[in-house]
Amino acid sequence: MKKIILCSLLLSVLLLSSGSRLGFGTLLDSMTTAVVSITYEHHEIHDGDTFAVHVDNTCTNTGEMTVFAFNTPNTTKWSHLVASATATAAASFRIVEAPSIDVGAPGTEETGYKTPYNRNRNSLNISTLSNIHSTPVVNRISYFEEAAAATANITTTTAVWTETIGSAGNPATKSGGGSRGQSEFILKQNTQYAVIVTSLDDNDNVHHITLEWYEHTNR
Question: Are residues 64 and 146 in the same domain?
Answer without folding.
Answer: yes
